[in-house]
Design brief:
alpha+beta; Beta Polymerase, domain 2
Length: 383
């Protein structure tokens, strides 16, 4: 691993114990290509943590220009996140007026509850989970706030996409970020979270800017973060940080029950991969139950080590995504689960397919075929 990547891993935590602070300071005073370090911090979306750690543990070792650049980025991100948090609370207030039950996770809530501050995590959108039967009033409430989406105009096509998809994105002119309205946390063809009732039955309260909100249980949040990392082929260190910081604050988590439920759903390897990456890259402390489960699965242990070793390579994201397209199936247990997942991934159209092909409603049935062609071109015909 490049020294700049090693330093970034040391920086990418919200709490710096004294031994880590000393290691970070010594490392920062070594032979570091600071331009490369800055590029990695931005690309892996952990520049807020990098700024906070360096300014705390080794301010004199960092070129003043680079530290100032990170400082500016940090406060720009904080300003945006404050606006996004305010917008989230406004949306949830309107949802409550419409009588809609809503759950928020990731985004500003994760930044404040796990990372310890709104400025320490970068996020792209606001995730709000609703019940599927509440989608129409949720759309109406967002439209009353000036939000619009690229939902299909045809009600029949909307119905089909509600079956195929799990969320729609909404945007408002001048808004701080898009809003994702989700009625499922995983695609229907995925074995994890097929029973949405489990999620709604064990929600917990969390505070954002002094306001109590409903969010996922610690166990569900961890599993979803590991699944999210897999969806994106673990392309950024921030995804690993999300898992590591969630572990750090998950006091009293029943690890044995979490592992058993992940195994029951067919996603134990998905969970173990995310947890092991935090250990390899960020030195996260994992409970004995997790280490024992990983030791019993040679495939997942070797995979986590391999991904960690090449995590910061300059090879394109497309190359990693190609391998994950097939690898994901091996991370799911059970032959029926695997067949259902691979078929669903291959043939289920999404919003990108709709934008690319723009088929009229009468030809909607051909979307799976065109999606297969698009995926083949994306993963096998491009460099």
């Amino acid at each position: 691993m490049l020294p700049e990547a090693e330093l970034l891993c040391l920086c990418a935590v919200s709490v710096l114990p004294e031994d880590r602070r000393l290691r970070l300071g010594a490392f920062a005073r070594g032979d570091i290509d600071w331009a490369r370090f800055s590029e990695l911090a931005v690309r892996h979306r952990v520049f807020p943590l990098a700024y906070r750690s360096l300014s705390t543990a080794a301010p004199g070792a960092v070129p003043a220009v680079l530290l100032e650049n990170l400082r500016v980025r940090y406060y720009q991100n904080l300003t945006r996140n404050l606006a996004a948090a305010k917008e989230l609370l406004r949306i949830l207030e309107v949802f409550a007026e419409y009588g809609l039950a809503a759950v928020t996770y990731k985004g500003p809530l994760l930044a404040e509850s796990a990372f310890g501050g709104l400025g320490l995590r970068q996020f792209n959108d606001l995730d709000i989970l609703i019940r599927e039967q509440d989608l129409e009033p949720a759309v109406s409430s967002l439209e009353s706030l000036g939000y619009r989406s690229d939902l299909p105009s045809s009600s029949w096509e909307q119905g089909r996409f509600r079956i195929y998809l799990r969320d729609f994105a909404f945007r408002r002119a001048g808004g701080p970020c898009p809003v994702e309205i989700q009625w499922r946390v995983a695609h229907r063809y995925h074995p994890l979270f097929r029973d949405q009732g489990r999620i709604w039955g064990r929600l917990r309260d969390e505070s954002l800017a002094g306001v109590s909100l409903k969010t996922l249980s610690a166990a569900d949040a961890l599993l979803i973060l590991c699944l999210h990392g897999l969806y994106h082929s673990w392309q950024q260190l921030q995804m690993v940080c999300d898992v590591a910081e969630s572990i750090r604050v998950a006091d009293g988590l029943d690890w044995k029950a979490l592992l058993a439920e992940a195994r029951e759903q067919g996603g134990l390897r998905i969970l173990l991969l995310g947890l092991l990456l935090t250990r390899h890259l960020l030195d996260a402390a994992l409970p004995r139950e997790v280490l024992d489960a990983a030791a019993a699965d040679r495939f997942i242990s070797e995979l986590a080590a391999k991904i960690s070793q090449g995590f910061f390579d300059r090879s394109s994201y497309l190359k990693r995504a190609r391998s994950f397209f097939f690898l994901e199936t091996r991370l799911i247990s059970g032959p029926w689960n695997r067949i259902r997942y691979f078929g669903g991934r291959l043939w289920t159209p999404n919003e990108q397919d709709r934008r690319v092909f723009s088929l009229p409603p009468a030809l909607f049935v051909f979307h799976p075929f065109f999606r297969t062609v698009r995926l083949f071109k994306t993963y096998f015909l491009k460099g």
